[in-house]
Design a protein that fits this description.
With about 425 residues, the chain is mainly α. About 85% of the residues lie in helices and about 0% in strands. It folds into two domains: about 140 residues, no CATH class; about 180 residues, no CATH class.
């Protein structure tokens, strides 16, 4: 069965399609019966006019009505097929001109509907960002998307093997890693950490940690000092170590209490020098490249692709198989957060809507010819008889009204002409 046959069968099984055909046949029967009535009236008038001269008036109506009905029948039929199967020139207009109609329809849609101005104007009155955000903000809606995404993960992971992961790393990750300037990135990270004295709380924590370590390991320091100083008595070693630890702790307290302490400034200067060297020094840059090269070689030779795939697959599948999936909740929570964030920020909605309208305008401008070409190709691919049948089912009922109106209009004009002739000859 061809595509057209399938479409035809589907259309015939469609209740709406069946109703259209029933209404068309009903109107066609009505118009044809009216034509037959005109012919019967005409024959009756011809047969009895000699005995009843007044029949000239209904005869004039019947003659003109018959001519009008036949003319309109011919015009309607000529649109879709050859009248009575006779290939009269300029009949079966729609089947014969299907290609031209298809091209004209495609051009008409492209020029009058698929224009950036029309599309953007129609879409600009709708706050799509707010509507989508409000929909996502509802947990049940985001859970639907999360279920779809989470449901696709097992198939995705099952379809991947070690070769796929290795190919992913080899084609995407490793080439990007090779181009990284590790030392420069480290310098930039240091700049970010020290900007606005962000590193000072870290320094305070480090000094506190040193103080705690010294306080809890005094005996260890004494033992090590005693091992290094074999010719001094133990009490003297203990005294020196205690004074040393107390001095260090006192110095730490001073540094922590004084934001402008000299040691802080020295530490800041050392960090700045290190950051500058990391960003500019060739030695540091070469060291960073060597370190990165060793890491990449270790990653490639260690079989981490297989380990990574195994652990990711095992954890994700186990999580999705559990009664309460953290992955599914995380996905749903992410969409809910995005929805609530966008719904509460009109400025973001405005930017998203403007972005969406720009994309819509660009897509229409770039692809409208392809869309019109698609319409043209689809219409050209239709079976000519099927096209005629579909169009006739859609507009044929109205065309049958034209036949009916043509019968009465023709009859009325015939009576008027007969009246004018009668008045002139009288």
């Amino acid at each position: 069965m061809t595509g057209t046959d399938r479409n035809s069968g589907h259309a015939q099984a469609d209740p709406v399609w069946d109703e259209k055909l029933v209404r068309l046949k009903r109107m066609r029967t009505t118009a044809t019966c009216l034509l037959a009535a005109m012919i019967v009236l005409l024959l009756t008038c011809v047969a009895w006019q000699a005995a009843y001269p007044w029949l000239a008036w209904p005869r004039a109506f019947a003659e003109a009505g018959t001519v009008g009905a036949i003319a309109d029948w011919y015009a309607v039929v000529a649109l879709f097929r050859h009248p009575c199967g006779i290939p009269v020139p300029h009949t079966a207009i729609i089947p014969k001109n299907q290609q031209r109609i298809a091209e004209s329809l495609g051009s008409f849609v492209e020029e009058n509907f698929l224009t950036p101005e029309i599309i953007v104007e129609r879409l600009s009155g709708f706050n799509a960002a707010q509507a989508l955000a409000g929909w996502l903000a509802v947990r049940e809606n985001s859970a639907v998307i999360a279920d779809v995404v989470a449901g696709s993960l097992p198939r995705l992971l099952d379809g991947m093997d070690e070769t796929d992961v290795e190919h992913l790393f080899g084609r995407l990750v490793i080439p990007r890693l090779r181009t990284l300037e590790v030392s420069r990135m480290a310098g930039q990270v240091l700049d970010i950490l020290t900007e606005g004295n962000r590193h000072q709380p870290l320094l305070d924590r480090g000094l506190s940690a040193v103080e705690r370590w010294l306080s809890t390991h005094v005996d260890l320091i004494k033992a090590k000092f005693g091992e290094a100083s074999k010719f001094t008595p133990a009490p003297l070693d203990a005294y020196i170590v205690n004074k040393f630890v107390e001095g260090i702790i006192a110095l730490i307290h001073e540094v922590v209490a004084n934001p402008e302490h000299a040691l802080r400034r020295q530490f800041d200067g050392a960090v700045q020098d290190l950051s500058s060297n990391l960003r500019t020094s060739a030695v540091y840059r070469r060291f960073g490249r060597l370190l990165l090269r060793d890491c990449i070689r270790h990653l490639e030779e260690g079989g981490y692709y297989r380990v990574l795939l195994y652990h990711v697959r095992a954890h994700v599948l186990a999580d999705l198989g559990s009664g309460h999936s953290a992955v599914r909740d995380m996905i749903a929570g992410t969409f809910v957060s995005i929805g609530k964030g966008v719904a509460s920020e009109p400025s973001i909605q405005h930017k998203l809507n403007a972005w969406w309208l720009d994309i819509a305008g660009l897509l229409v401008l770039r692809h409208r010819h392809q869309l019109s070409a698609l319409i043209t190709d689809v219409v050209k691919g239709w079976d000519t008889k099927e096209v005629s049948r579909k169009l006739e089912a859609e507009i044929g009922r109205d065309l049958q009204f034209i036949r009916i109106n043509g019968t009465f209009v023709g009859g009325t004009v015939g009576v008027l002409i007969h009246a004018c002739v009668f008045l002139v000859l009288r």
